[in-house]
């Protein structure tokens, strides 16, 4: 079954010259244990599509199904619960909680979802090279360290659907490759659906499928 299904998604943004269509009928599904790379040039609408998949933005038309459930058909509380328990997000703004340590940030999503596992969290921290930073606060981290915390926070909650927008964009090549491989390994091991945006053809080649967004449609 598709854990994530986007059906004929359309989205325009208002501008002074009138509405600008960004997504013009995008359909995409990601099955359990599969990793799909979303590519496309800057401004092609990749982040917009990911935000819609996450329920953070509403499409003008089309449906988003998570685990077979239509996001728009759920009441706000149900949508929030689905997002908390099922969907993991790694976005370009890392949205770490500034008042919490790295360790508490790593555990944050898992605690919200009611699946916190201290051992798994510690293992993730080690694999992400964060073990020595657990007592620090986000403002005391580099951009790449913050990015790894955001990835760890999402992975620690063992989401069934993981959406990631250039998740290794702030990391050097060797670190980025290792972190990318970890995301793929866990998604496959946990039978999660992973949809990620990447500008790297090399990283996209490591995924099960590559899709290209161009002219508002998937090519
Ligand atoms: N809230 C908004 N209001 C108006 N226009 C927007 C808004 N969000 C995105 N856009 C426009 O929609 C288009 C797609 O933006 P989006 O961020 O989805 O592209 P992208 O493919 O993720 O780009 P990049 O690779 O540079 O991150 C762009 O032309 C952008 O200017």
Gist?
The chain is 35% helix and 27% strand.
Overview of this protein structure:
- This protein is of the alpha/beta class.
- The protein has one domain: P-loop containing nucleotide triphosphate hydrolases (Rossmann fold, 3-Layer(aba) Sandwich).
- Helices cover 35% and strands 27% of the residues.
- The protein contains seven helices and ten strands.
- Strands 6-7-8-3-9-10 form a six-stranded mixed β-sheet, with helices on both faces. Strands 2-1-4-5 form a four-stranded antiparallel β-sheet, with helices on one face.
- Strand 4 (61-66) and strand 5 (69-70) form a beta hairpin.
- It starts with a strand and ends with a strand.
- Adenosine-5'-triphosphate binds next to helix 1.
Which features characterize this protein?
about 220 residues; binds adenosine-5'-triphosphate; ATP-binding; ABC_transporter-like_CS; 7 helices; ATP binding; ABC transport system ATP-binding protein; Rossmann fold; transmembrane transporter activity
Give the biggest beta sheet.
6 strands, mixed
Backbone structural class: alpha/beta
Topology as a string of helices (H) and strands (E): EEEHEEHEHHHEHEHEE
Number of strands: 10
For the record, the CATH architecture stands as 3-Layer(aba) Sandwich
């Amino acid at each position: 079954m598709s854990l994530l299904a986007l059906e004929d998604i359309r989205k325009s943004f208002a501008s002074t010259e009138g509405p600008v269509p960004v997504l013009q009928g995008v359909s995409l599904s990601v099955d359990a244990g599969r990793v799909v790379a979303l590519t496309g040039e800057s401004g092609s609408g990749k982040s917009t599509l990911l935000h819609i998949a996450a329920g953070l933005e509403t499409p003008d038309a089309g449906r988003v199904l998570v685990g077979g459930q239509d996001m728009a058909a759920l009441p706000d509380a149900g949508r929030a619960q689905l997002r908390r328990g099922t969907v993991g997000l790694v976005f370009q703004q890392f949205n770490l909680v500034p008042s919490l340590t790295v360790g508490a940030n790593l555990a944050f999503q898992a605690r919200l979802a009611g699946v916190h596992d201290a051992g798994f969290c510690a293992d993730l921290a080690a694999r992400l090279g964060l073990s020595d930073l657990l007592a620090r606060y986000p403002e005391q981290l580099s951009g790449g360290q913050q990015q790894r915390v955001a990835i760890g926070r999402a992975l620690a909650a063992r989401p069934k659907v993981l959406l990631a927008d250039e998740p290794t964009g702030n990391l050097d090549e060797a670190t980025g490759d290792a972190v990318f491989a970890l995301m793929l390994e866990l998604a496959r091991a946990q039978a999660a659906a992973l949809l990620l945006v990447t500008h790297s053809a090399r990283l996209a080649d490591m995924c099960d499928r590559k899709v290209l967004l161009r002219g508002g449609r998937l090519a």
